[in-house]
Design a protein that fits this description.
By secondary structure, this protein is of the alpha/beta class. It is 32% helix and 36% strand.
Length: 210
C-alpha cells in the first residue's frame, strides 16, 4: 500500500505541477520521486530556468525541486531557410526566442495569406544583430516568388527561385543590391520570367508577340 500511495502522490504532483508549467513555462517538464521533483527542458534564458523551478516548487505538496534545465546550444552559423513550393512554405533552421519565431510566422501569414506553413525551426543561441530584420526582408521577397527559397546564414543572404510574374523581376533583382541590417549577398539566382505571349490579329490568323 505504501508503494501505491507513493505512486499516487507522484502522479498527483506531476499532474498539478505539469499543468502550472504548461500555463507559465510550457517548454519545461517535471518528474517526481515521492515529493521531490526535477524540472528539465531547454530554456531560452536564465530567467525562464529560474521561473520554471519556482513554478514547480510552489505547487502544493512539493518538498524539493531540482533544476536540470539547460540553455540552448549555440548555432554557428545561425541559419534560416524559407522554401516555397506548391501551396506551402517550409521553415528550417534556428530561432532564438518564441517571440521572434511568432513574429516571423506572422509576417509570412500577413504577406502570403492562406498559405500553409511547415515549421521545423530549432531553438538555438547565437543569433546575430540584424538577423530578424533580414529575415523579414526575405519573407517579402519570397512573396514575389512563384517558387524558390531564401536562406540566411548569419547575415549572408541567398535567394533562388522563379518570380511570380514579369512585373516583379526587376523589383526582386534591384532589392538585393542594398540589403538591410548589414546583410551580405551570397547569391541571387532569380530566373528570368516566362515571356508573356499576346495574340494579335494578322492576315490569315493571329500572331503571337512577346
Amino acid at each position: 500500500s505504501g508503494w501505491y500511495i507513493g505512486g499516487s502522490v507522484e502522479r498527483d504532483l506531476a499532474l498539478r505541477a505539469g499543468d502550472q508549467l504548461r500555463a507559465g513555462q510550457p517548454w519545461a517538464t517535471v518528474t517526481f520521486n515521492g515529493r521531490d521533483g526535477v524540472v528539465a527542458g531547454i530554456a531560452e534564458n536564465e530567467i525562464q530556468q529560474r521561473e520554471a523551478a519556482n513554478i514547480a516548487a510552489s505547487t502544493y505538496g512539493v518538498r524539493v525541486i531540482g533544476n536540470k534545465t539547460v540553455l540552448p546550444m549555440k548555432a554557428d552559423p545561425f541559419v534560416l531557410t524559407l522554401e516555397k513550393a506548391g501551396e506551402g512554405i517550409s521553415l528550417k533552421g534556428n530561432f532564438a526566442t518564441t517571440a521572434s519565431r511568432l513574429a516571423l510566422i506572422e509576417s509570412i501569414e500577413k504577406s502570403m495569406p492562406g498559405i500553409s506553413l511547415k515549421d521545423e525551426l530549432v531553438l538555438a543561441s547565437g543569433k546575430p544583430d540584424g538577423f530578424d530584420t533580414l529575415a523579414g526582408f526575405g519573407v517579402s521577397q519570397l512573396a514575389d516568388l512563384a517558387s524558390g527559397e531564401v536562406t540566411l546564414s548569419n547575415l549572408e543572404y541567398t535567394i533562388k527561385g522563379k518570380p511570380a510574374g514579369p512585373e516583379v523581376y526587376d523589383k526582386l533583382t534591384n532589392a538585393v543590391k542594398a540589403l538591410p541590417a548589414g546583410g551580405k549577398l551570397k547569391a541571387a539566382e532569380i530566373a528570368l520570367p516566362d515571356p508573356v505571349l499576346q495574340p494579335a490579329p494578322a492576315p490569315g490568323g493571329i500572331e503571337l508577340h512577346g
